[in-house]
Amino acid sequence: MHALTPEHYARLRRLAEAWTHAHLREAKAAPLFNPRLAADALCFQHHDDPVLGEQMVGALVTPVSLWLVMVPASEMGEPTEVGRRHWLTLPSGDYPLETVLLGETQWCRRLVILDDLSDVASRQEASRLAQQLMERVMAAGEKGEGGA
Prior knowledge:
single chain; alpha+beta
């Protein structure tokens, strides 16, 4: 498996920025909003999907939730399946991802793993949470039940 390129990291940064631009105002009004956190795409790695080809899989942490996310490894075109499910097969099991728009130009396939991060004390703690998620879903033998 090869490492992510600077272009991949730039695209993942734009993904987090798109979440912020599209959802931060609404999130700030939510009772579970955590002002200590910011949107961040973390722990991404390459994944060869049998249907979609080369993808990147990782975690998107936001001030309100933690998502398991998959995006194309090459430049993203227009999504044709918004709202549609795609099953992501990882060593720990199968995960139902939904295609969602993040603003006008960004999109991803995601599964909300946690929808309450209000007790996460810092961005470093959120990063550790993302690392734990990815370690768990990428570990063989821990069958998932549609989530981590």
